[in-house]
C-alpha cells in the first residue's frame, strides 16, 4: 500500500497538494486514465474496489446523521435536522449536498464498537473490524493476500493515512500481521521513499542499484516475523511501484479539469482542536480526488483519514472552541468532498464497482459536557455508505431518544466488513494461518448487513 505523510496532526498526517503535484511530475511521461483502465482489464480481478474513509477522532452522531431534536437541551444538537431526498430520513442541516443525494447513500445508525480502550483513539476496528488485542490484519492486507494480484505496477492496497505516534508505538492499525510482510504498507512519500520519488531525476529512477540502496531502509524495517522471500517480494513490488508510470499518473491530479477540482473543494489550513499554542493542521480534500483516481486505475483498496473529530469542548479560551463551532466548520467540508466523490464515481460509471464507507472509531456522548463538547462513546455511532451496488436510500437501525444505545440488536464493525468482503467477492469464512499456524477465519461473524443486499 502507499502511505502519505506530511505535517504532524492529532489523528492524521497528510500530504499537501504541492507534494502530490511534485510526485506526479517525477514520473516523466505519464499514462492517461484510459490507458490505466485498459491495463486494468488484464489484471484478472473482478474490478471491485473499496474506499475506506476514517473520520479520525470519532465524529458526533447527534450532530450529523442521528439528530434528536426532541431530546433535552443538554443533549440535543444546536443544528436542526433537514429532510432528504428519501422520505422520512433526516440528517443535519450542515449536510445539504448529501441530503439531496440521500437516495444514493445509506446510513447505519446503530453501530456499536468494542474497543476496550475508551479513552484512546485506536482505529483498529475501522481498518480490520476488531479491537487491537485480537491482532487481526487490516482489510487491505487481507485483500492483497487472498485475491488474485492486480497489475504488477499497481499496488493492491493504498493508504492515504498516517497514524499518530501513540498508536504506532503499540500496534500500527494497518500492520499486515499474519497476512504476511509481502502485504505490508508501501509508501510513495514517507521517511524512506520521499527522496526517492520526489527528488531524484527521472533518469535515476531507472537505476536499480540506486533504488535498492534507498529501499534498504524499508528492508531493515520489515517485521522479523517475515522470511527472506517475503522481504524480496516486498522490495520487488516496491521497486515496480515507484518506477511505475501507472501509479504516478493516478496520483497526478493536474490532469483533472478545473471544474472537477472545484467540485471537491480546496485543501484548507485550519485549527481542528483548541490546544494552547497549537499549530494549524491541513484539511486535505485532495485525498478524496486521489482516492477516486486510484480506484479508477484499478487499485482494490484505498484507505484515507480526514479531519480531527475529537471535539471534547473548550480546551482554551475563546468562543470558537466548543464542539458546535468545530463541527460547523468541518462537516460542510466533508459534505462537499464526499458528495463530490460519489457524484464523480457515478458520472464515470464506477459507482456500482466502488463501495465507499465513511466512519469513525467511536461516537460521542449524548450529554454535552461542561466544556461544551462531547466525550468518547462506543455504544452508538454511525457508518455512511455509498455505491457497491448496495440498496441505498435508507437509514438502517435506530437508537433511543438520546442516541445513546441501539434499539434491538446493534450492528458491529464485523457486519460492515462482512458487507465489504461480499462486495469484493471474498468469502469472509475462509481462513489463513496466524502466527501459530492456526487457521483464522477472516471474520468470526460473517453476516453482512442484510438491508443493504
Layout of helices and strands, plus pairs?
Elements: H1 17-25, H2 33-40, E1 49-54, E2 81-83, E3 90-92, H3 96-100, E4 105-111, H4 124-128, H5 139-146, E5 157-160, H6 165-168, H7 194-199, H8 202-205, H9 208-221, H10 228-242, H11 245-251, H12 258-264, E6 268-270, E7 281-283, H13 286-297, E8 301-305, H14 323-347, E9 354-359, E10 363-364, E11 376-377, E12 381-387, E13 394-396, H15 413-424, E14 431-433, E15 439-441
Parallel strand pairs: 1-8, 1-9, 4-13, 5-8
Antiparallel strand pairs: 2-3, 4-12, 6-7, 9-12, 10-11, 14-15
Helix pairs in contact: 1-11, 9-10, 11-13
Structure report:
The chain is α/β, with parallel strands linked by helices and 453 residues long. The chain has 15 helices and 15 strands. The strands form five sheets. Strands 5-8-1-9-12-4-13 form a seven-stranded mixed β-sheet, with helices on both faces. Strands 2-3 form a two-stranded antiparallel sheet. A two-stranded antiparallel ribbon has the order 6-7. The two termini are 29 Å apart. Mean pLDDT is 80; it is low at 1-45, 189-206 and 221-228.
Provide the domain count: 1
Number of helical segments with 4 or more residues: 15
Q: In which range does the helix fraction lie?
A: 25-40%
Strand percentage: 5-15%
User: What ranges have pLDDT less than 50 throughout 5 or more consecutive residues?
Assistant: 1-45, 189-206, 221-228
Instruction: Please tally the β strands and state the result.
Output: 15
Strand order of the largest sheet: 5-8-1-9-12-4-13
Assign an overall shape: globular
Structural class: alpha/beta
Amino acid at each position: 500500500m502507499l502511505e502519505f505523510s506530511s505535517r504532524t496532526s492529532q489523528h492524521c498526517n497528510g500530504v499537501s497538494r504541492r507534494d502530490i503535484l511534485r510526485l506526479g511530475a517525477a514520473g516523466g511521461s505519464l499514462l492517461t486514465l484510459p490507458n490505466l483502465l485498459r491495463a486494468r482489464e488484464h489484471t484478472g480481478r473482478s474490478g471491485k474496489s473499496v474506499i475506506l474513509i476514517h473520520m479520525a477522532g470519532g465524529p458526533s452522531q447527534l450532530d450529523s446523521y442521528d439528530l434528536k431534536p426532541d431530546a433535552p437541551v443538554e443533549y440535543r444538537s444546536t443544528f436542526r435536522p433537514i429532510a432528504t431526498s428519501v422520505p422520512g430520513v433526516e440528517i443535519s442541516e450542515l449536510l445539504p449536498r448529501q441530503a439531496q443525494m440521500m437516495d444514493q447513500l445509506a446510513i447505519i445508525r446503530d453501530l456499536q464498537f468494542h474497543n476496550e480502550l475508551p479513552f484512546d483513539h485506536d482505529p483498529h476496528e475501522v481498518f480490520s473490524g476488531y479491537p487491537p488485542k485480537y491482532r487481526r490484519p487490516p482489510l487491505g492486507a487481507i485483500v492483497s493476500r487472498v485475491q488474485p494480484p492486480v497489475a504488477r505496477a499497481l499496488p493492491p492496497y493504498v493508504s492515504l493515512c498516517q497514524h499518530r505516534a501513540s498508536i504506532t508505538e503499540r500496534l500500527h492499525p494497518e500492520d499486515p500481521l499474519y497476512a504476511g510482510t509481502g502485504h505490508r504498507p508501501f509508501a510513495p512519500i514517507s521517511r524512506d521513499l520521499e527522496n526517492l520519488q520526489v527528488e531524484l531525476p527521472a533518469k535515476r529512477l531507472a537505476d536499480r542499484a540506486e533504488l535498492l540502496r534507498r529501499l534498504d531502509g524499508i528492508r531493515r524495517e520489515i517485521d522479523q516475523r517475515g522470511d527472506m522471500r517475503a522481504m524480496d517480494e516486498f522490495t520487488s513490488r516496491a521497486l515496480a511501484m515507484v518506477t511505475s508510470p501507472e501509479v504516478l499518473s493516478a496520483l497526478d491530479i493536474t490532469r483533472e479539469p478545473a471544474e472537477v477540482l472545484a467540485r471537491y473543494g480546496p485543501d484548507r489550513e485550519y485549527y481542528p482542536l483548541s490546544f494552547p499554542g497549537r499549530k494549524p493542521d491541513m484539511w486535505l480534500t485532495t485525498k478524496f480526488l486521489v482516492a477516486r483516481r486510484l480506484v479508477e486505475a484499478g487499485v482494490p483498496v484505498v484507505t484515507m483519514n480526514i479531519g480531527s473529530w475529537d471535539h471534547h469542548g473548550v480546551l482554551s479560551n475563546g468562543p470558537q472552541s466548543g464542539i458546535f463551532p468545530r463541527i460547523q466548520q468541518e462537516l460542510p467540508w466533508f459534505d462537499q468532498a464526499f458528495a463530490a466523490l460519489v457524484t464523480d464515481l457515478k458520472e464515470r460509471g464506477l459507482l456500482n464497482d466502488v463501495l465507499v464507507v465513511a466512519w469513525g472509531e467511536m461516537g460521542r456522548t449524548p450529554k454535552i459536557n461542561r466544556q461544551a463538547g462531547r466525550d468518547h462513546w462506543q455504544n452508538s455511532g454511525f457508518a455512511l455508505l455509498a455505491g457497491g451496488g448496495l440498496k441505498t436510500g435508507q437509514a438502517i437501525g435506530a437508537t433511543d431518544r438520546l442516541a445513546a444505545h441501539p434499539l434491538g440488536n446493534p450492528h458491529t464493525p464485523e457486519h460492515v466488513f462482512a458487507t465489504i468482503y461480499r462486495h469484493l467477492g471474498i468469502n469472509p469464512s475462509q481462513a489463513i494461518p496466524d502466527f501459530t499456524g492456526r487457521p483464522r477465519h477472516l471474520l468470526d461473524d460473517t453476516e453482512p448487513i442484510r438491508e443493504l443486499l
